[in-house]
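Nucleotide-binding universal stress protein, UspA family
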Amino acid sequence: MAQPTNQNLIKLYSSILFGFAFSPSLKVNILESTRIAHFLNCKLILLHVGKNTPEKLSEINSIISQTEHSNLSIEVLWKEGNPESVITKACLELNIDLLILGALQHENRFQFYVGSIARKLTRKVNCSVLLLIKPSETRVPCMHVVVNGLDAPDTPMAIEHAFYFSSLLGAQQITIVEEILPKEIHVTVEDDRSLKKANIIKQRLRHREESRVKNIVSNLPKNITQNINVKTQSIFGKRGYSIGHYAEVVRADLLVMNAPVKTGIWDRIFPHDIEYILSDLPTDLLIVRK
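Tokens:
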């Protein structure tokens, strides 16, 4: 990835926790996590839920010795217990701002922390979560970030974090996607006249959403918005599914979303927003939480 473009930013993150398992992707996930910690100027804590053995410790130390940034503050912790409970408690007790988890792209192939545990962690932890599906041993440029522009209380924060990441990772473009539910059109298309009316309503909704999003961006600190090309994109479709598909089509390097707020039984029965994305990750996913 390109070098950070601005070092005079208000820090949104100070500490990062990477929950790791001894899997074939361990090395690239640690290398990517150390890279992110470096660019965000954060302390990095590596946490393994399991026993500490000489063989495991030797492997971890060997990987750390191969990282690109020797001056990075790294701490390795070993805790036993239920992964979900241990990680949730560690994020709280260690004042973690960002939890990083390695992930495979498709739900039916999720392993260890991913799948049901990852879903629970995204709801339970008190911090933001970054799911990595394409870590790299050598740095790959982050060029395009997609962020949701949903009309919700936490959306301005998600957009701010998207710009913050983009500024430090050197991304050149941010696309803010406003997902508009088809039911907002309130017109049943039956003939040319109703089609014309539906198109007029769609255009008005697009203008409304673009105006709202531009207002959010205009209120962000200028040092995180400068030098970044900003695009708005209105999509009529199912929330979560539509933005995930869009991020995949444009080959975004990072998708930024609000953290899920609903945790009741109906949300487990009827998927919403973030659930569609977690079931088939289009790219690396940052879930922003206060």
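The chain has two domains: 15-132, 144-284.
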